[in-house]
Amino acid sequence: MQYSRVEKIAEADLPTRWGSFRILGFEGHLPPGATPGPMGKTVEEAVALVYGDCSDGNCNGKTPIVRVHSQCLTGDVFHSLRCDCRQQLELALDTITAHGAGILIYEAQEGRGIGLMAKLRAYELQDQGRDTIQANEDLGYRSDHRDFTLPAEILKQLGVKAVRLITNNPEKVQAMENAGIKVVERISAEVAAELTSQKYLEVKRDKMGHLIGSLL
Questions:
Q1: Which of 17, 20, 99, 176 has the least CB density, counted as fewest CB within 10 Å?
Q2: Annotated catalytic residue: which of 86, 121, 146, 164?
């Protein structure tokens, strides 16, 4: 995806139970006439949570630890155990604060980019026996509509040229590299599976190539 412009809209303090962050809000504007994604947006939104001194493209003088996290209302807010999203979010915040600095980019790409209502319709199909990919395809979507251009552009605006990326998804690594952000290290985002998330994680591993080693 190409944006006509990416701009910082706001910046403020954000105290959390992990520590005090700076929260930066960004908008990525699609060019006039561009085809919107499945959610129909022409303006994409994301926030960056910055912990520690990351003012020179490094964090406390080191290559920053970075997590690019896609919005998941059911997991992040309601603690759903259908997925591992909240556990991964908390793992990333724990890792960043434990190292004294880092950046978490939270991107509004609910349901791998299809939107909340479509995601809930996919849940219905999963309740009937379809897996996450099959459910998306039954609804006319790709398995994953996410695009990681905006997080890469945000990192560039922050002066970041290289990252230690918290992810199990090789496509995120490749997306950063393709955008000119060097991934010098991949840090595992693997968390313990729940009985209710086991099949979901197996699909991510077996059909999407995610690097998950603990499943049977």
A1: 17
A2: 146
Q: Structurally, how many domains does the chain consist of?
A: 1
121 marked ligand binding residue? no
Nearest-angstrom CA–CA distance, 110 and 85: 11
| 87 occurs within a structural domain | yes
Is 82 assigned a catalytic role? Answer: no
Residue 205 in marked binding region: no
Known active-site residue 84 = no
Asked whether the predicted pLDDT for residue 215 surpasses 80, the reply is no
> What CA–CA distance (Å, rounded) separates 100 from 82?
31
Give me the CATH number covering residue 89: 3.40.50.10990
Q: Express each pLDDT in 49-96 by its tens digit.
A: 999 999 889 999 999 999 999 999 999 999 999 999 999 999 999 999
Given the residues 76, 144, 147, 164, the one annotated as active site: 144
Q: Is residue 216, in this structure, part of any structural domain at all?
A: no
Rounded CA separation 72/83 (Å): 9
Q: What is the mean pLDDT of the chain?
A: 94
Give the domain extent around 45.
5-206
